[in-house]
Amino acid sequence: MKAIINGQIYTDNHFCEGKVLLFDQTIKAIIDKNEWDGQADQILDAAGAYVVPGFIDVHIHGFNGADVMDGKTESLTTMAKGLTANGVTSFLATTMTMGVPYIRAALEAVKNYTEDEQLARQGAEIVGVHLEGPFININKKGAQRGEDIIPADINVIAGYEDLVKVITIAPEVPENMAFIEKYADRFNFSIGHTEATYEVASEAVKKGARSVTHLFNAMSPLEHRFPGVVGTAFLEDIYAELIADTIHVHKKMFEMIYKLKGANRLILITDAMRGAGMPEGRYDLGGQEVIIKDGRCLLIDGVLAGSVLKLNDAVRHFTENTTIGLEKVIPLATLTPATYIGVQDRKGSLDAGKDADIVFLDKDLKVLKTIARGDVKYEV
Ligand SMILES: [Zn+2]
């Protein structure tokens, strides 16, 4: 048994002082300091730091030079280890629109990685795959490869169905709408890279779609005579991903989005690509060259291409640019994404019985220490 003392422990949506958090691979209890007998194999002194649940990124392509589309367990290792520096303890390995053999190679690598007990415990846990494309709309492809876009087809992921947790999909393609209806109880469909009308997007929600992918980006916008997918995101009781880097969406939108979606439906993501965590320069993203300069990732034609955002910085941006307060922002990167992808029984909050995924943050939300399933995987 290990113990965390002197932290501001995030429990029941509040920071509490005077508590001790006891854990091994899972969280055992949070008790009052004066009820504790002082017994522990190891005592971690948080020295006044915030102690929060590990962050969960449901949309991330790469980090530290590696990308899921490399189709290699080595790349997944680089991501899983590196992301702990950002307080991330779980993520969905996110694929891109490329030829089907490349997508299947990426799925195979994730399968091999997650089935290997030793690999799987190296850092942040890969809790599944987010398939971003190829079932999207070429007119809203963003940085996805247009020539590899195809109508929805279960054969693309055959054999890996249990691994795939989220599928980004454009419902205005008739085959895609039928696919949502057929498989809504097996996958989380996230409406994205789409020019669906409000009516079509809302129809997709009726058929079982549960989310929108990077709200506002690569989707039909909100207009007063054309509510678009953004209108659907605001009006329907579905989840919405947000890239809170202040580049993809203006920082003044954050408060408005929060008011409309609330803490239980808004999910902070990074959509980070391999150049995240690396010096600025030129990098490959799903077979296309991306130039990273001044914190922006752009294709040669100037289209925004993923981000170099770190999830702890997303939490900071969202906190700094709203009146909500950190206590209400924490769930956007923890319990809400956990609930969305169905891992809330073991992730997303510091409750007894859940995995000991724990992060120490300083007052500027810089990560001081990251514990993943009970082991310290990162510390400054
Ligand atoms: Zn993406």
Can you characterise this structure?
There is one protein chain. The protein has 380 residues and is an alpha/beta fold. The protein folds into 2 domains: 2-50 and 363-379, Urease, subunit C, domain 1; 55-348, TIM Barrel. It has 10 helices and 23 strands. It has helices at residues 73-82, 100-115, 117-120, 174-183, 198-206, 228-235, 253-261, 311-320, 326-329, 335-340; strands spanning 2-5, 8-11, 14-16, 19-23, 27-32, 42-45, 50-53, 55-60, 62-63, 66-67, 88-95, 125-132, 164-169, 188-191, 211-212, 239-243, 266-269, 281-285, 288-293, 296-299, 358-361, 367-372, 375-379. The strands form 5 sheets. Strands 8-11-12-13-14-15-16-17 form an 8-stranded parallel sheet. The longest helix is centred in the first third of the chain and has 16 residues, at 100-115. Zinc ion binds at residues 59, 61, 94, 132, 271, 306.
Gist?
The chain is α/β, with parallel strands linked by helices.
